[in-house]
Amino acid sequence: RELSDSSYYIQNIEVPEAFQQAGFSGNTIATRISRKLNEIIQRASTVESAISYASASAKSDVSVDLIGVGVPIRGIIELIGNAVGIYRKNKITGEITIEGNTMVLELEVIGEKPERFEAPLDSSGNWGVPLKTLVTDAAETILKYTNDDVLNAYYGNVFQNGEKLIRLSKFQLERYKGNREKEAFAYAAWAQGLLLQKRLDEALVKVEEGLKYSTEEHRLYHVWANILRGQKKFEESLAKRRLAFAKLKPTDSKKRRAVIMSGMASTMGALGHGDSAIYYLDKAIEIDPDFSTAYYNQSLHYLRHKHDTTRFFELLETSLLKGFSAAFIYRDDEMEGMLSDQRMVALIRRFEEE
Fold it and tell me: Which residues lie closer than 8 Å to 215 by C-beta, 6 or more apart?
């Protein structure tokens, strides 16, 4: 089997003999990483720009012919990527070891700096939980080096983790130094990360820094609008929403348009225009029916402005089915009054278990 120039693969995930005996072979772990990659991409809802990852085989012994070599290499799991920029040289190697009470993964995308991840073992010696953590670390690291836009969307729009988003934006600034468009995008992400941490003044500083690199990056105006909303400057926020929409390019994805429509709804809701908020969220869903955040925000509007808990739970469930993070509900101040509701408890538990 030949690997095209748009391919890369995980090669030789090495594990201790005890892992093999417990059913955690290198191929099994590589397949888990592949599945996690697909999950992140799907939940990020960035189909237009995403790489498609799939494991070539879940068998424990796979034969692959490398181009220019002509001999079978045993024990390789091939991950196929259909995006430009993912080449054969992007081999990924990894090794899992146990060091005392810690499970360690050392991962390297060839040509990039090796990275080390650690996960503590619990008192029972159960490998499943720390292994799950390391699989997630591996998938996120692979995306960082092969499609950081997807990871950016995941951290910012789905997982909503400010710390990870800031760390990624710093990586992007270093990686794309001299590319003013990419640098402006990275500053927008940095500002979004600070906003998620409710550090509004610092977020605004990053927006201003980003505008020095490009005044055409719509994400900067979108984040600026979110900052102004947080400062309760709602009319100014609405003006920035409109400017963000005007800065969209024909090549921007439907997801980006839906995000800005959803933001427009957020500001309309803050101004007390509940019907207008729902109108813009309907528009966002019309543009991108898989945009989970729009359903989530719509559920909040039905709760606050319509006092319709039945519709609230219907829309909330839809958002979770579309990939919205159940964990974020705990962090959302607007959900605080609903967290003790038994329907909410059951719904969150259901999706956390999935």
Answer: none
Could you tell me if 3 and 66 are in contact, meaning their C-beta atoms sit under 8 angstroms apart? yes
Segment 126-151 shows an average pLDDT of 93
Q: Provide the token pair at 199.
A: 């550090």
Chain CA centroid to CA 217, Å: 20
Q: Tell the CATH topology of 206-353.
A: 1.25.40
Distance CA 23, CA 228 (A): 52
* Residue 281 · residue 265 · CB < 8 Å: yes
Confidence of residue 84 (pLDDT cuts 50, 70, 90): very low
Residue-by-residue DSSP string for 255-298: HHHHHHHHHHHHHHHHTT-HHHHHHHHHHHHHH-TT-HHHHHHH
Residue 73 to residue 63: CA distance in whole angstroms: 6
Report the alpha-carbon distance of residue 115 to residue 144 in Å, rounded: 12
**Confidence at 72, pLDDT banded by 50, 70, 90:** very low
- Angle (deg, nearest 10), helices 180-196 and 200-211: 170
Question: Taking the mean position of all CA atoms in its chain, how far away is CA 102?
Answer: 26
What pLDDT is attached to residue 78? 38
Domains of the chain, by residue range, sit at 7-146, 206-353
